Amino acid sequence: MRLLKIVPDNTNIDFVRLRYWAFGLTALLTLAAIALVPLKGLNMGVDFAGGLMIEYKFATPPGVDQVRSSVDRLGLGDAALQQLGDPNRLSIRLPVQQGGEDATNVAVTKVTNELAKDFPGSSFQRQSTVSGKVSGELIRNGVLAVVLAVIGICLFAIFRFEWQFGVSTGVAILHDVLMTLGFFALTQFEFDLNIVAAVLTIIGYSINDKIVIDDRIRENMRRYRKMDMREIINLSVNETLPRTVMTSLTILLALFSLLIFGGHVLRGFTAAMILGVFVGTYSSIYVSSSLLITLGLRAEPVADARGKPAGERVG
Predict the structure, then answer these.
(1) Dihedral, CA atoms, 185, 189, 195, 196, nearest 10 degrees?
(2) CA distance 290 to 236
(3) 141 φ, ψ to 5°?
(4) 214: CB partners within 8 A, 6+ apart
(5) What share of the chain is helix, strand, coil (3-state, %, to 5)?
(6) Sorting pLDDT into bands at 50, 70 and 90, what band is 306?
(7) Lowest mean pLDDT among 16-25, 31-40, 80-89, 249-258
């Protein structure tokens, strides 16, 4: 049986030739992501913002202003409404209700009764409540988890390979994380603990791809000690390209299936993962590997017993 080959065995793409274009594009996208987060802000879910979130399903796509008017009449505080993936579903976010669980249940009952009266055929789906103190702890723990993951990965690359590998890996992962944050600021998908899990998963996927390429680069540095570093990186990336492409495609097949059939609850998580696969693959091939040349990584020839590089005559 003939094996399916998406990337031919004799592939020889000069990835390093485009490194300056890649660096420019990476810098531009990173700056855009950094600017989007404070300008548009992240649509923090109840996990981080705190408060009461009620998800409601309507018989037909409702007018957001009409729903807001119905909820505002109840005097439960300023309501923030967001349409979910399904146009018939709305997320209604209210401030934390004073009075504990009883007050929260009363608020949910009021909203349910009011919307059932104003929008026949509508139905309550679910609710979620997080206090302000808990949301602050979740934000701190989520940021800490991402930062520690990046630092730990960089330290691993430094001790496993060379310091240049650690720096290039850190730059590429930071780029992947910022791209994800910029995407959520642009699309205004809800940013909650599921997305933090997606960011950590993206980091894990990216580092897996980068370590495979870095390991092949180091192996080829030992095998071809007189070869130019540019040629070594191109050779290593091309040798691992079939594995990289096949891994990315199989993951994307699963993710697109999840995006289509997984429902709106998983839509933000799945969208983040799809973006992460594209961004992580790009940064592994064009950013992390090519940056090693800029950082001065060289394949040093082996010295013989007299301290002369191997292959040179000893006079």
Answers:
(1) 30
(2) 11
(3) -70, -35
(4) 157, 161, 165, 169, 288, 289
(5) 65, 10, 25
(6) very low
(7) 80-89
Q: Determine the Cα–Cα distance for residues 227 and 225; give it in Å rounded to an integer.
A: 6
CA dist 257 → 61, 78, 254, 266, 270 (Å): 25, 37, 5, 11, 10
- For residue 96, the 8-state DSSP code is P
3-state secondary structure 124-160: EEEEEEECHHHHHHHHHHHHHHHHHHHHHHHHHHHHH
pLDDT at 142: 75
Contact 157, 165 (CB under 8 A): yes
Q: Tokens standing for 36?
A: 């989007």
The span from the CA of 99 to the CA of 83, in Å, is 28
CA distances to 162, 166, 229 from 292, in Å: 10, 10, 9
| pLDDT of 312 | 40
The first and second tokens of residue 306, run together, are 């007299």
Alpha-carbon distance 308 to 315, whole Å?
Answer: 10
pLDDT of residue 2: 57
pLDDT of the residue at 99: 66
Nearest-angstrom CA–CA distance, 288 and 43 = 30
